[in-house]
Amino acid sequence: MDIQTSTADKALVVAVGGRLDALTAPEFERKAAELIAATPGPLIVDFERLDYISSAGLRALLATAKRIKAAGAQMLCVGVTGPVREVFDISGFSAVFQMHDSVVGALAAVD
After folding, report:
1. Contact between residue 55 and residue 25 where contact means Cβ atoms under 8 Å apart
2. What is the pTM (predicted TM-score) of this model?
């Protein structure tokens, strides 16, 4: 898994690439917790380069969403396509998270 961070306007963007599974989910969750603590505000998770997500990856996303909500901010997802989108749809996570096609679209939806 590869994690790249940047800022866009008023939000932190975390781009995730590769696989988000039982081996990499703890690393994602730890990195996200560090970023949320250091950079309060909205979090946009960009899945454009993500090839695979497992139930462990979904749990890490849910834990991250709870952490960001507790910090008084919101988490938005972008670039969820292909097999990763299928997992989101089958698990019902497409209805749980705010889904957008692009970072620009997500930024427009930030409260």
Report:
1. no
2. 0.93
Taking the C-alpha atoms of residue 99 and residue 92, their distance in angstroms, rounded to an integer, is 12
Spatial CA neighbour of 91 closest among 48, 55, 49, 52 = 55
Q: Each residue of 39-85: pLDDT tens digit? A: 889 999 999 999 999 999 999 999 999 999 999 999 999 999 999 99
Cβ pair 51, 87 in contact under 8 A: no
Asked whether 29 and 63 are in contact (CB, 8 A), the reply is yes
Residue 13 CA: distances (Å) to CA of 3, 10, 71, 90: 10, 10, 16, 25
Q: Where do the structural domains in the chain lie, given as residue ranges?
A: 2-109
Segment 24-36, tens digit of pLDDT: 999 999 999 999 9
In sequence order, what are the residues at sequence separation of 6 or more whose Cβ sits closer than 8 angstroms to the Cβ of residue 104? none
- Rounded Cα gap, residues 37 and 19, in angstroms: 24
* CATH number, domain 2-109: 3.30.750.24
